[in-house]
Amino acid sequence: MAESTPKKKLIEVALPLDEINAATAREKSIRHGHPSTLHLWWARRPLACARAVIWSSLVDDPSSHPEEFPTAEAQDAERERLFDILRRLVVWENSNDPKTLEDAKAEIRRSMGDDVPALLDPFAGGGAIPLEAQRLGLKAYAQDLNPVAVTINKAQIEIPPRFEGLPAMNPRDRKDRMVDVWEGHTGLAADVDYYGQWMRERAWEKIGHLYPKVELPAEQGGGMATVIAWLWARTVTCPNPACRHTTPLVRSWDLSKKKGKEWHAEPFYNEEGELDFVVKPGKATEKGMVDRKGAVCVHCGEPIKFDYIRQEAQEGHMGSSLMAVVAEGEHGRAYVAPSTVQAKAADLPVPKDAPESMLPEHALGFRVQTYGMLKWQDLFTPRQLTALTTFSGLVKDAQEQARLDAAASGMADDGVGLADGGTGATAYGEAVGVYLAFVVDQMANHGSSICGWNSPNTQLRSTFSRQAIPMTWDYAESNPFCSSSGSFENLFSRMIKSFSGLAVGDIEGHAQQGDACSDGSYRNIMVSTDPPYYDNIGYADLSDYFYVWLRQSLKSTYPKLFSTMLVPKAEELIATPYRHDGSAQAAKEFFESGMLDVCRRIRDYARDDVPVTIYYAFKQSDSQVGDAKDTTASTGWETMLSAIIEAGFAITGTWPMRSEKPGRTISNGTNALASSIVLVCRKRPENAAPLSRRDFVRRLRANLAPAVRDLQASNLAPVDMAQCAIGPGMAVFSAAGAVLESDGSKMGVRSALALINQELDAVLNDAGDATDTPSRFCVELYGSHGFDAAPYGEVDVLARAKNVELQKLVDAHMVEAARGKVRLLGRSELPERGVDLSNDWLLCQALVRDLEQGGIEGCSALAAQRTPVEAEDARALAYRLYNLADRKGWASEALLYNNLVTAWPQIAGQAEARRRYDEKTDQTTLGF
């Protein structure tokens, strides 16, 4: 039963944000065993982030239990204990650690009792949120409009628990492995592995002859070698009437840029005037024949405009020529000139069962249609289509073989399939087939004519190296039967390892297709979701690339899910003008009304005692809308906040979750915003009273100052302060029935955000009142001139206003006054550590200098020379200086202050250890 006054959850008060973000960033480099390697999905939510958000949304904050934790100190101690659990929980290696998960689940039960809720993600996408809910012991519901996303979620949360703990059914493992207990998904993984190899062997029997070996020249070891990739160049006929030679459209002639192993191709025309290529060691001396401006004929040098190339392509006159063959030699990659044998092996007709569906006409991120590629099959060479249709056809054969073997192993065969909830041999065979269909999709991602060749690391570049399908002039065709990148073996082995990253347990999740605006009949449920970003590329258009192959493989397994020729698009909730007759306004209205409907639906679903969490994909470009310095106002951000508030939610917290690698806090000269902001929401009472603008500002000031102090005390990075401060600010705004302007009109979200920013600046500036007088002067001078020189008269007026003497500042090595100018001394000009650094400005700048030059060890040595209070005052000043630098657009300056704060826990820890050591040494010396 929901309580009238719900307890505050940990996520509404405090989080160990640094550790969560560190785990999130590290997860990007995890490839082996990560569930994302099951199947590509764009902009997946990191598992560590999803796990932390779900857990901290269920666990009570200690302040909710004053009877157990009556003092602030007791609450802080208990909160730190919970943080320790959360810190362990987000570590990748602990994903399925029994002790860590049991400790986490115990805290959930302690807060929720026996009433642990189920979780719904209505925009499930790649499935991170439902998967992590299941890992934490919750029943998970994954909903998505996209059939590809639904299938991915079924493979993660629905299929594995259904066959939990079953032994392998294939004859190899039944015969060769004497295993008494098959834990978790090991039996299912072993069967997927077996039938995948079974499928590869039969594919080789059918089409292996299409992938001949290549003879290596003597200088590269000689003998026959397995081909890794064929490198092709698209071609057109030169428009020069006096030339009319076939010319290659190549960006770069380099095949390998690895040091000491450089190789390149060179074009030439044989005696018959036909285009051909040679392969030579060393770097290319000539530039490629195509760039952003157009192309150049390799024979006569005539410029070739893109308009001509597009026209030729649309009329079917664009061709391709084999430029080079890459093979696996005895000493690494070998590069061989094309031959008639290799070229003829690829000269095939398009298979009759290749997908006939059309590409979208105006979708964002698609560039190939203007070059005559109108169908999905046009993105592949005939040999690639032959391989993909062969493998996708064999999925059904593998399903049937798995069913027969499962029945022979004693599994009942009731004929009920996966889609109908079956658990017998028929369903099991279909389950194996789902994962085999995934590897076909992975082969498609690494086996199209959009794949490029990465010459620096001599590897294939996949189709979706970014969220688009661009035109690729010279492309790489992988060999599915080799063992290198893009091969069946490479992709399949990686996929098999992903089973180890799935949740273990028999709590079966449910994944279903559905429109988030429609009522899915969920009630009294926990909701956490990552809705579409305002005007992002439509995943529905991109996912058709995979859908056309999944449909061939799994249409009989999930007939309803794959009943349409392509993915549903009309209901996809993004603001894309091309779906609204080119009208940006209509697209905006569609997104706004749709997001409001979704938020209202979520309010119907959500429990009263657990906050709703909504991810917002905050992008750097968002800061370019409106005021150039306003990092919180954009159309998408404003729309999301407005929809949440208008739907009846109060926002009680905002947490920036980062997935950038360490060291990229600031890039390209601007502050990099969080990868996502997690909005924490509670249902607002129906009878919430309105507020006047004056009362809103008064409450905002009262709430923001202590909230900022708490955030600083938790060592929040300065770069994240603006986003986190939105939480307590919007909590005041969204808790009111409305905020009324002086003329009686309702205040909008953008106006509220502007006021929150103003008050945040005021809070950070007010914090300077505790700073010593010379430091306050330096901060003022820094804010107006940085480290540049200013007119003496202007600075003298400021000094008098701040009641400081300029000469004393010169004597203290804080400023230089000469030739009618005054400037702050740069960090490299500051006194050495032995000189007095007893004011906040000097100490803060010296700490920044020592961190930059000597790292944490050097910085902690300086911090140890001051008292802990003095060092903390210098750290607090770094927040204000970061804010000043950020507002001025001084990115490199802002980064230095941000780095000082984020490194402070290690600096302070080492400084305290030094103090204790020095104190012990002094006592020993005195005692002696």
Automatic annotation (TrEMBL):
Coiled coil: none annotated. Residues 14-85 form the DUF1156 domain. It comes from the Bacteria. InterPro entries: DUF1156, SAM-dependent_MTases_sf. This is DUF1156 domain-containing protein. It comes from Granulimonas faecalis.
